[in-house]
Predict the structure.
Amino acid sequence: MDVGADEFEESLPLLQELVQEADFVGLDIEFTGLRSNLSGPQQISLFDLPSEWYLKTRQSVQQFTICQIGLSVFSAIEGEANKYTAHSCNFYLFPTTFGILDSEFSFQASSVQFLNQYGFNYNKFLKNGIPYMNEEQEKKIRHDILTGNWRVRSSPDKDQIKVVIDEVTRWLDLAKEGDWMTLPGITESYDQFKQNIHSLFPVLIDTKSVTKDIWKEMNFPRVSNLSKVYEVLNSDLNPTKNSGPEIVHASRCEKYVETKCPHEAAYDAFLCGSVLLKVAHLLLQKVHRIDPVPESSFPQYLDVLAPYVNQVNLIRAGVPKINFSGPDYPGIRPPILILSVKGWPGVSEQQVYHKFQNLCKFDVRRLTRSQFLLLTNKFKDARNILKEYRGHPTLCISLYRYWRHSPNVNCLLQVCGIVTAWALLAFTLGRSGP
């Protein structure tokens, strides 16, 4: 079901009822772009701490806007064993114009081509998108109204906006003490971001995080996207194919019964929820070591999914996952290597990267004028490059040791050495004096 501004008010009560009674909800979001072409230190890197990764990603994503949100609401069918109905909805969004508020955002050509390829309805997005604003914009609008410092741009809704603001202003004149609400500002930090997400979604499960672990154990073929994962789980390769949960599409949501719509938000949300149920059933079968598992239910699935709750997979970062309910867990990753360059004056990080890219993929970070740190996410790449460049006359690669190679530690040791030498000299001269 596609929902734009015209249909939103009518659909909202039903959606609220469905979500309140649901067992869980699948969610997918489409943007007008994915990642801007940041360069140098702004690029995502394996060296990044979670807070650095978040700030870089946030800065990149803020240049784009959400064009579609997909929800797939899964509810167990009463009286039917392990059977679920899915209500799938696409919501087209478009930034609102209100008063002097006039948002700017970018399109990424590759993203437009990608969504075009899969039939994205840009006409509905641009002409009938549901208007929205973020918390900071809403806070500013409220402040402007309260202080009387508001203006209206020329727009089709200009007269209507004036009427609304006048009504709010009159209400403020009659409001009693305590009849107001202040929206807290967001401090847009990594820890606050985690708190905000955890508050909105107390139980968050990342389908990719769950699937990665079970995929290797089941020896399933390698797949590159969510659609392929869904196909494998619905094929004879899945030993629990015939005993797993049954999922049916609700009325008014039959579009996906026969039609595949990859990268349409509601369809991807449906795939996410379906994959989660089927993988959870695999995990449950693994625990009980029998198939079919008697009386499979969503609470049982939640029990076996407990290790994955609030753990969201990260791509290219210093840790493998974000933990939204507590501190992030350190990941096991290959050691950092240090490259010392001889006879290559003025060498840059980019040149170092291109030097090794045919052998293995490394993230590169400059340490000193002639030294660089190399980091990969594959242990075999680290071993291969150490072996390949052993004894190289101009490119010396070894394991990085903080206490040995850090410029800060070396500087501190040099200072300590100088101070110690002067202290010994002063002590010696003092003893040899009259």
About this structure: The longest strand covers residues 83-95. Residues 180-187 have pLDDT under 50 and may be disordered. The radius of gyration is 29 Å. Residues 262 and 268 are 6 Å apart (CA to CA).
